Amino acid sequence: MYIFLIQTLLILSLSVYQVGAAYIYRRQSPDLGSQCRPFYTTFPPTSVSRNTYSAPFVAISPAGSYQTTPGGLELYLNKPEGTIKTKQGANDKTSEGATVNSTFAIHYGKVTFEVSAPAIPGVVTAAILIADERDEIDVELLGGDPAHWQTNIFAPTRRDKEPLFGVFSSIERVPHPNPSIAKIHSYTIDWNKERIEWGIDGRTVRTLKKEESMKGGVLHYPSHPSRLQLGIWDASSPSGTSEWAKGPINWSDAPRSMKAVVRSVRVECPKY
Ligand SMILES: *[C@@H]1O[C@H](CO)[C@@H](O)[C@H](O)[C@H]1NC(C)=O
Ligand SMILES: *[C@@H]1O[C@H](CO)[C@@H](O)[C@H](O)[C@H]1NC(C)=O
């Protein structure tokens, strides 16, 4: 009797879960879960849409927060309305920058982003792979440290009490002849089952093997289908984030409107 009940409950919850998952897939991206298809864009007007999934990219942020231009996709961060007070290393208001998702996902592959980012302390420009399960493989450009760029991964497990912020992160140099994130550089994430390689301007600078993602006896290796996500954000709060981003943004000094430019995105597929 009990066993029967438990079985019934199990089957019920499983099918609800599956229906839920299928629904999410269809709503958010018909292609999520696909392996890898070669892709290249320089962001013509039809490449980004809002509220529909018919274009390769969908904007999560408001309509005016981004624009496709002949130079690429511009992502804006504007000064928040009203007076901004700074207390204990954080601003009391932050502004919502642009965020754009790809509507397709890759499950392993090599992604190259050509990006320039504002060199303003407290502003972060991010070109990442992100899964619905919250796995992330990141390239982060901190305006407060324009001579460097950061790489990181996240793959939350049930055992983690909080995200492992500093554990897998690393800081790399932006090479000559234009050693600043404010100039266009090409940043590469090359992801397969065994390892992740990050590169800049065609040179690999960091390799993270799957077994190196072990923490607390559990692997934290990104392994779920992931979308590409491009964004610019105001890291002026909370104070821990702001400290990491060398913020908060000093709005009496910073331009009222800043932009990151994504000139192109390329996806190459692994050959198995
Ligand atoms: C963007 O991607 C994230 C991570 O997979 C997902 O949680 C979010 O729902 C996506 N948003 C849209 C509008 O596609
Ligand atoms: C913010 O910028 C203004 C103008 O340059 C400057 O006077 C002020 O000291 C800066 N504030 C901080 C906290 O650095």
TrEMBL record:
InterPro entries: Beta-glucanase-like, ConA-like_dom_sf, Glycosyl_Hydrlase_16. It holds the Pfam family Glyco_hydro_16. This is Glycosidase crf1. It comes from Hypsizygus marmoreus (White beech mushroom). One of its GO terms (cellular component) is fungal-type cell wall. Residues 37-260 form the GH16 domain. PROSITE patterns: GH16_2. One of its GO terms (molecular function) is glycosyltransferase activity. The lineage of its organism: Eukaryota, Fungi, Dikarya, Basidiomycota, Agaricomycotina. GO terms for biological process: carbohydrate metabolic process; fungal-type cell wall organization. Gene3D superfamilies: 2.60.120.200. It comes from the Eukaryota. Keywords: Glycosidase, Hydrolase, Signal. Residues 1-21 form the signal peptide.
